[in-house]
């Protein structure tokens, strides 16, 4: 009984951490949207997002392991992960600047669908007919969200959001590959470093000196992004992925609240319906993958 109680307590902690992480990610997206509206270039936003994320990341590494964890024998693996992940981050940030916060968040939920497809095509992992059907239904949900009518569709923002979701999926595929030999803090550290370098590389092509308020918001975006990453990590240290992953969709709730109170955005009915379809598909895929893993074990 005590073991069961302990497991339930740890699951509760994991869920709470996951929901808090989603609140951080929704806040990060809102800060990116705000700063972009103030004329800050996307690569400059990327720099602040990663440079100040180093603060919580380094504190976490110092408290949970030693800095020897930063040694790596997979530099090319980290380079690939950074290239794919940062492509997704750049496109995602550009989409946030162009779309309502709720819509860009909802489209990002298609990432698990792309991940399932890519895992079959790239990693040659077996994907059964049930999961392929769920992927198909999920993409139908994406079409409902974006309602591809040229008269009503924010074409550029929508395409960027979809490419951003694909980039996030590709990043998860590369993480799945290099995590066989590399610990989580190492992967986070080198991705954050690569993001900072990319941001600096973009300085000659456009860099603005933000006003004090905007500068503080950029710094806050970096700190919140770093904290959100660590909360995601800690949620998995306390509970299995099958328990906490469905709560990723709580980000839509936070995004809807922020969008309403900050920009007076009201989520479109099609966005909400499509998000429900995509979320349901994602949860079903997670259920099938978890059941398959348990059978294999």
Q: Strand content of the residues, in percent?
A: under 5%
- What pattern of helices and strands is seen along the backbone? HHHHHHHHHHHHH
Computed Rg: 19 Å
Helical element count?
13
Largest sheet, in brief, is: none
Low-confidence regions = none
Question: Structural class of the secondary elements?
Answer: mainly alpha
- Strand tally, please? 0
Helical content, roughly? over 70%
Please state the average pLDDT score: 86
How would you describe the shape? globular
Distance between the termini: 25 Å
Described by its quaternary structure, the protein is single chain
Task: Summarize the structure in words.
The chain is mainly alpha-helical and 297 residues long. The chain is built from 13 helices and no strands. The protein has helices spanning 2-37, 42-51, 54-64, 75-98, 101-108, 111-121, 129-146, 155-178, 184-201, 212-238, 241-244, 251-263, 269-296. It is globular and about 50 Å long.
Offer a concise description of the structure:
The protein has 297 residues and is mainly alpha-helical. It contains 13 helices and no strands. The chain has helices at 2-37, 42-51, 54-64, 75-98, 101-108, 111-121, 129-146, 155-178, 184-201, 212-238, 241-244, 251-263, 269-296.
Quickly list its features.
single chain, 297 residues, mainly alpha, 13 helices, 0% strand
Fold blueprint:
Elements (H helix, E strand, L loop, with lengths): L1 H36 L4 H10 L2 H11 L10 H24 L2 H8 L2 H11 L7 H18 L8 H24 L5 H18 L10 H27 L2 H4 L6 H13 L5 H28 L1
Helix pairs in contact: 1-4, 1-10, 1-12, 2-9, 2-10, 3-9, 3-10, 4-5, 4-8, 4-9, 5-12, 5-13, 6-7, 6-8, 7-13
């Amino acid at each position: 009984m005590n073991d069961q109680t302990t497991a339930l307590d740890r699951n509760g902690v994991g869920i709470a951490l996951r929901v808090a992480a989603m609140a951080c990610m929704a806040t990060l997206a809102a800060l990116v949207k705000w700063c972009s509206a103030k004329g800050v270039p996307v690569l400059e936003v990327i720099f602040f997002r990663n440079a100040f994320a180093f603060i919580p990341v380094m504190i976490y590494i110092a408290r949970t392991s030693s800095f020897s964890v930063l040694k790596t024998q997979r530099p090319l693996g980290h380079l690939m992960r950074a290239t794919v992940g940062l492509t997704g981050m750049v496109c995602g940030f550009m989409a946030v600047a162009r779309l309502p916060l709720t819509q860009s968040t909802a489209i990002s939920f298609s990432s698990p669908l792309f991940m399932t497809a890519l895992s079959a095509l790239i990693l040659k992992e077996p994907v059964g007919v049930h999961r392929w059907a769920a992927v198909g239904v999920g993409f139908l949900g994406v079409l409902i969200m974006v309602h591809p009518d040229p008269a009503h569709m924010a074409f550029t923002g929508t395409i960027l959001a979809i490419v951003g979701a694909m980039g996030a999926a590709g990043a998860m595929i590369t993480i799945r590959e290099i995590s066989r030999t590399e610990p989580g803090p190492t992967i986070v550290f080198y991705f954050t470093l690569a993001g900072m370098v990319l941001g600096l590389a973009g300085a000659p092509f456009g860099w603005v000196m933000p006003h004090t308020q905007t500068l503080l918001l950029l710094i806050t975006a970096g700190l919140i992004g770093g904290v959100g990453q660590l909360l995601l990590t800690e949620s998995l240290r306390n509970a299995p992925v099958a328990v906490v992953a469905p709560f990723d969709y709580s980000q839509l709730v936070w995004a809807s609240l922020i969008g309403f109170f900050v920009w007076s955005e009201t989520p479109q009915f099609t966005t909400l319906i499509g998000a429900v379809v995509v979320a349901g598909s994602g949860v079903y895929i997670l259920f099938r993958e978890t059941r398959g893993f348990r059978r294999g074990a």
